[in-house]
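Regression test case RT-17, inverse folding.

Input:
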């Protein structure tokens, strides 16, 4: 749930420099992406939201456009390269290009590595790794032409260690890849003297529908969240707003956060 009557610029004044600039939030039809999109809208940004589920995107768009924010919803399947290209083409056509990219789209399946089907392996690679990289490539084209930009990749604590015995080995592998891709892109941008910032946020347990999908069991997901008070989508949105509020010369490449009590 989004924080009611919470203005991002009041709590993170530096984010005001992005007012009226275009932010693209992938995976925005629920959870972390949804919360981030609303926070950026409250900060006065023009927010493009994308995901697979049109009805949810339309609902989010109505919330964005209900206030002073301006929203644009573009349903897309990020497991397909043409879907990604179409999103950026439409943004350029309607709003002139992306200045902030939030790579929030991601998925995971809970299954032993020696049993998980190739289809599931491929889907995690396509969305969590390939789509994230292609979005960075496209966004950087827009940002370089404008002379400014910031990329924030939503990763996971699973990208820093493998959750042993949890049957999330492939998901963890994709998040380790996100860490490497973020660091690799940072190095390439720095070598060119680019003003574009890049960093990753690695949350621990966040209460969204993600875990229920991974477990394929809503009750089990609720039980897991009940064991420790999980982070909320708004907590991650706060970190995004903080990163966007930093001065031009300050670059934070990695933030890891967990709920109190999480042991891994």
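Golden output:
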């Amino acid at each position: 749930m989004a924080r009611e009557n919470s203005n991002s610029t009041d709590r993170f004044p530096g984010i005001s420099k992005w007012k009226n600039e275009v932010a693209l939030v992938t995976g925005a039809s629920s959870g972390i992406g949804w919360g981030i999109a609303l926070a950026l809208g409250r900060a006065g940004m023009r927010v493009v939201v994308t995901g697979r589920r049109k009805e949810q995107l339309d609902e989010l768009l109505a919330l964005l456009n209900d206030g002073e924010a301006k929203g644009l919803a573009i349903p897309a399947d990020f497991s397909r390269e043409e879907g990604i290209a179409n999103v950026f083409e439409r943004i350029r056509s309607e709003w002139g290009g992306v200045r902030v990219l939030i790579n929030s789209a991601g998925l995971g399946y809970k299954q032993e590595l020696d049993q998980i089907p190739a289809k599931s392996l491929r889907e995690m690679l396509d969305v969590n790794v390939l789509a994230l990289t292609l979005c960075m490539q496209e966004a950087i084209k827009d940002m370089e032409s404008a002379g400014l930009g910031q990329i924030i990749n939503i990763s996971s604590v699973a990208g820093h260690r493998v959750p042993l015995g949890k049957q999330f080995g492939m998901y963890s592998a994709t998040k380790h890849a996100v860490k490497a891709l973020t660091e690799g892109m940072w190095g390439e941008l720095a070598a060119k003297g680019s003003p574009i910032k890049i960093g990753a946020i690695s949350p621990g347990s966040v209460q969204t529908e993600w875990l229920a999908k991974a477990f394929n069991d809503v009750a089990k997901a609720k039980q897991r969240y009940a064991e420790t008070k999980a982070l909320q989508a708004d907590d991650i949105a706060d970190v995004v707003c903080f990163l966007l509020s930093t001065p031009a010369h300050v670059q934070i490449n990695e933030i890891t956060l967990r709920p109190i009590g999480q042991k891994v």
